[in-house]
Amino acid sequence: MTRPRIVVVGAGFVGVECLHRLERKLSPRDAELILISPQDYQLYLPLLPHVAAGVLTPQSVAVSLRRRLRRTKIVPGVAIGIDAEAKVCIVRKTTGEITAKPYDHLVIAAGSTTRTFDIPGLTDHALGVKTLGQGAYIRDHVIDQLDLAAAAVDEEERRARLQFVVVGGGYAGVETAACLQRLTTNALKRYSRLDPSLVRWHLVDVAPRLLPELGERLGVKAMAMLRERGIEFSLGTSVASVDDTCVKLTDGRSLPSRTLIWTAGVAASPLVTTLGAETVRGRIISSDQLKVPGYDGLYAAGDVAAVPDVAKGGDAICPPTAQHAQRQGKVLADNIVASMTGAPLKPYIHKDLGLVVDLGGADAVSKPLGVELHGLPAQVVARGYHVMALPTLTARARVLVNWGLNAVAGDDFVRTGFQDNKPKTLQDFERTKSYLAPEEVKAYGAEVRAQA
């Protein structure tokens, strides 16, 4: 008898937790486990701003898949299409070769990409904070601007290189601006030719207030902390256009700058559009059992899925956060095993534990279990949460050592240069141009059926 094949797309919290649990619940004779991922690590995304700022090394937040998954076959590539009728997932390997992976059970956990808009110059000049490569590249880029500004003869060029613009008033934008502002502030002690008053960080967001998910009081407190450190805010406005020397805002102002970091929200992976399933706000509609209605053997969870938030009730859907993704992965594994054995499936229910925002140093705002905290108590909660959420003891040890070493010894502000010849656009870093059109997916599916 042929073993059922369980294919998981995406090595984020959902995918890795699901496979880790399946390895424990199923023997090698029970099922074949396959993971499709372009990387051989699980990225702990909430700490990526710390990598961009040099507080943590990239390896600290990149947890080796082979430390957790001992018998899952890892296919290095990107899932670029799904034919649910043929039960085939189409994969572009990292070599460029396109292959089809038949499945009996498919978990779509492809995550999300940076959400962009039709703004002139945005996709060519904006930097994102979504992948490990982007985090490493931003660090090199910011330090490079300091080096070039210190060597510049023209005063206007110096000012433009020392003005940094971050778009997005959510967690990613606020934490990125906060961590990188600390990087430049500390670095200026080593740049005797630079006037500290020329270094400016500007946070832009179309929303009327910062961090709306945390409530007005903590949003105001976070803004006060960052404003005291010199970060400027432009709320209720956005970017009108951007080129390699200037960022123009919708309120008519122009900010001479060589750096635009774009964190204005996320969108579900383009893989969603190849399936043709019903969506809500671009995310696949999933049942509370994490199944995609109307499709046999198909599951969706995490950032890519609109999962009902049973704990909240009503029309609420689970937010795309790590705490939900980790728990959804475990429920997914249980439900896949249940569907194989004929047992009843269980719903996904989780009451949100709260939110944390690390602003670097002793600055933070947190809301654990609804309790509002700021300053050092909030920072203790934030970092404690991150350490416990990391999936391995090795990763926890690396992060704790890195934090301690950075606090004691500081940073040397070295540009690695590893990304100098790499693509710099959002689409290239996040591979958003890789996906197939629905008609191409059907053609591959037909080819697989013909060979079966």
TrEMBL record:
Its EC number is 1.6.5.-. InterPro entries: FAD/NAD-bd_sf, FAD/NAD-binding_dom, NDH-2. It is an enzyme of class 1 (oxidoreductase). GO terms for molecular function: oxidoreductase activity. It comes from the Bacteria. Residues 5-329 form the FAD/NAD(P)-binding domain. Keywords: FAD, Flavoprotein, NAD, Oxidoreductase. Belongs to the NADH dehydrogenase family. This is NAD(P)/FAD-dependent oxidoreductase. It comes from Streptomyces cremeus.
